[in-house]
Specification:
Structural class of chain A: alpha+beta
CATH class of the largest domain in chain B: Alpha Beta
Order of helices and strands of chain B: HEHEEEEHH
Shape of chain B: elongated
Helix content of chain A: 10-25%
Helix content of chain B: 25-40%
Low-confidence stretches of chain B: none
Distance between the termini of chain B: 33 Å
Number of helices of chain B: 4
Strand content of chain B: 5-15%
Strand order of the largest sheet of chain A: 1-4-3-2
Mean pLDDT of chain A: 82
Order of helices and strands of chain A: EEHEEE
Number of strands of chain A: 5
Low-confidence stretches of chain A: none
Oligomer: heterodimer
Distance between the termini of chain A: 28 Å
Radius of gyration of chain B: 19 Å
Strand content of chain A: 25-35%
Largest sheet of chain A: 4 strands, antiparallel
CATH superfamily of the largest domain in chain B: Glutaredoxin
C-alpha cells in the first residue's frame, strides 16, 4: 500500500506515470498525443499513475503498479457529496 | 477517484460515508486534480470539469479485462461488477479452457470451447440461463 505523505498548504497532486511531458512549443504534437493517450483498450495494459489518496485516516500516495499481482477495480465518479 | 482533493475525501468519508458503511471506506479514495489521470482513461469530461462514472477491472498483470462508463445521474450495479470479476477469475484459473456464457455466476455451467462444441451450444446452454 502507498506510503504516507506529508501535507502542507499545497493540495497534493498526482498524474500519469512514465510519460514524458513535452513543452507546449508545438500545438499539433500535443493535440495528437492527447488523442492517443485517451484510448483504453480491453486486453491491453492500463496506463500507470500515481495519485494522492485518503485511506483509513491517513493521506497516502498510491501508485497503480504497486497493485500488480492483485485484481483491481478502479472507479471514477463525478464528485464527493454528489448524490448518486 | 475523483477531481476532489484528499481533504474533501476525508470530510466526505468521515462525515457522511462512514455513516453508511461501518468503519468508513475501506479502500484508498484517490484524488485526481485537473482530471489528468481521468483524461488518460477517457473518463474526464472537460466541459463539466468532472469525471464520469468509469469502472475498470484490471487483472494481476495490469491488463484491463473490462470497463463500463456511465453518465453521472445513473449509479452502477456493484453485484454485476463482482459477477464479472468472478467470471474473469474463473477463466483465468482454467487458463482459458473454459468460457462463461451470458448470465454466468459461480456454480453455473461453463462452456469448453473446441471442435466438439461447434453448433452444439444449444444442447448445453439454454437462453433461460441468461436470466435466472
Amino acid at each position: 500500500m502507498g506510503e504516507e505523505i506529508k501535507v502542507g498548504c499545497a493540495r497534493p497532486t498526482g498524474g500519469p506515470v512514465g510519460e514524458t511531458v513535452k513543452s507546449e512549443d508545438n500545438g499539433s504534437v500535443s493535440k495528437e498525443k492527447k488523442e492517443v493517450t485517451s484510448m483504453i483498450r480491453i486486453g491491453k495494459k492500463v496506463p500507470d499513475f500515481s495519485a494522492p489518496a485518503y485511506h483509513q485516516g491517513k493521506f497516502v500516495s498510491v501508485k497503480l503498479s504497486e497493485y500488480l499481482g492483485k485484481w483491481v477495480v478502479l472507479c471514477f465518479y463525478p464528485g464527493d457529496f454528489t448524490f448518486v | 477517484m475523483s477531481i476532489d482533493s484528499v481533504f474533501v475525501h476525508k470530510m466526505w468519508n468521515d462525515k457522511e460515508l462512514s455513516k453508511m458503511v461501518e468503519g468508513g471506506v475501506p479502500f484508498p479514495m484517490l484524488s485526481d486534480a485537473g482530471g489528468k489521470v481521468g483524461s488518460v482513461y477517457g473518463v474526464y469530461d472537460e466541459d463539466a470539469g468532472v469525471e464520469t462514472r468509469g469502472r475498470f477491472i484490471i487483472d494481476p498483470e495490469g491488463v484491463v479485462q473490462g470497463f463500463e462508463v456511465l453518465t453521472p445521474p445513473v449509479g452502477r450495479n456493484v453485484s454485476e461488477s463482482f459477477r464479472q470479476i468472478h467470471a474473469f477469475q474463473h477463466v483465468r484459473n482454467t487458463k482459458g479452457a473454459e468460457a462463461t456464457p451470458s448470465g454466468w455466476r459461480p456454480g453455473k455451467v461453463t462452456l469448453k470451447p473446441g471442435p466438439d462444441l461447434v453448433g452444439k451450444v444449444w444442447e448445453v446452454w439454454k437462453t433461460d440461463m441468461a436470466f435466472d
